């Protein structure tokens, strides 16, 4: 998915740049030649060598000066057009990147909404008997902390533990000598303890000396 997104971004930027370069080429090609006016004045000089009066010569000089001014004006126009096209290219590329980032962000938010609570960080503090989920601290009993620690170590090793293995690791006994139900009970207590606190933190809010209410927007509630 990320590779496809990267290719899409690269292709979009390349397409925008190519379109602007083609447009710049066509625009610069459509502009008249800066020396075209000077060439016409020169042709007038050559074809009308019988212009000898002072007024006629003065007129030809004015035409020549006008041609030089026209040539300089076209050159400055070309520079302005190139600068504007470079600026437009940068703006369009930035807009494309921001649009793609916005789409990715919306997709990410939609995924989080579908999944629910997503754990981005888990910190286990044995000294405080506290587990921090996404920087939210939850107090646990000593037994629940042992269960959480065992599960965390197993997860880091990509291991799946049975109830008897959990009980054996905590009690120091051989897993074969432990009861499966004992480990399942530890998991249930951990779920109850941690789940109640998560619900209290994220869903049910306790307002001091007033009571309780749901900590969610009322517009998202639907009863069927």
What can you tell me about this protein's structure?
By secondary structure, the chain is mainly alpha-helical. The model has no long low-confidence stretch (mean pLDDT 76). 67% of the residues lie in helices and 9% in strands. It has helices spanning 2-30, 36-47, 54-115, 142-156, 163-171, 180-202; strands at residues 122-125, 130-133, 136-139, 204-207, 211-214. Helix 5 (163-171) packs across helix 6. The protein contains six helices and five strands. The chain folds into two domains: 2-115, no CATH class; 122-220, Winged helix-like DNA-binding domain superfamily/Winged helix DNA-binding domain (Arc Repressor Mutant, subunit A, Orthogonal Bundle). The strands form two sheets. Strands 1-2-3 form a three-stranded antiparallel sheet, with helices on one face. A two-stranded antiparallel ribbon has the order 4-5. It is rod-shaped and about 125 Å long.
- H-E string: HHHEEEHHHEE
Which structural class best describes the helix and strand composition?
A: mainly alpha
Strand order of the largest sheet: 1-2-3
Share of helix among residues? Answer: 55-70%
Report how far the terminal alpha carbons are from each other: 37 Å
Low-confidence stretches: none
Number of domains: 2
Largest sheet: 3 strands, antiparallel
**What portion of the residues fall into strands of 2 or more residues?**
5-15%
Number of helices: 6
Number of strands: 5
Radius of gyration: 39 Å
Shape label: rod-shaped
Mean pLDDT: 76
SSE order and pairing:
Blueprint (H helix, E strand, L loop, with lengths): L1 H29 L5 H12 L6 H62 L6 E4 L4 E4 L2 E4 L2 H15 L6 H9 L8 H23 L1 E4 L3 E4 L10
Antiparallel strand pairs: 1-2, 2-3, 4-5
């Amino acid at each position: 998915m990320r590779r496809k997104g990267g290719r899409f971004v690269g292709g979009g930027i390349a397409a925008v740049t190519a379109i602007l370069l083609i447009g710049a080429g066509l625009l610069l090609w459509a502009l008249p030649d800066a020396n075209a006016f000077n060439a016409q004045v020169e042709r007038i000089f050559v074809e009308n060598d019988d212009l000898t009066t002072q007024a006629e010569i003065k007129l030809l000089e004015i035409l020549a000066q006008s041609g030089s001014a026209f040539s300089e004006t076209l050159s400055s126009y070309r520079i302005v057009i190139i600068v504007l096209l470079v600026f437009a290219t940068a703006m369009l590329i930035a807009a494309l990147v921001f649009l793609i980032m916005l789409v990715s962000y919306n997709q990410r938010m939609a995924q989080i909404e579908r999944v629910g609570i997503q754990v981005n960080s888990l910190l286990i503090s044995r000294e405080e008997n506290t587990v921090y989920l996404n920087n939210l601290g939850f107090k646990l009993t000593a037994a629940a902390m042992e269960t959480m620690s065992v599960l965390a170590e197993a997860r880091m090793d990509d291991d799946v533990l049975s109830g008897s293995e959990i009980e054996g690791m905590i009690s120091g006994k051989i897993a074969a000598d432990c009861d499966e139900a004992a480990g399942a009970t530890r998991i249930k207590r951990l779920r109850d303890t941690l789940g109640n606190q998560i619900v209290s933190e994220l869903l049910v809010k306790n307002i001091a000396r007033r009571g309780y209410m749901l900590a969610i927007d009322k517009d998202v509630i639907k009863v069927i």
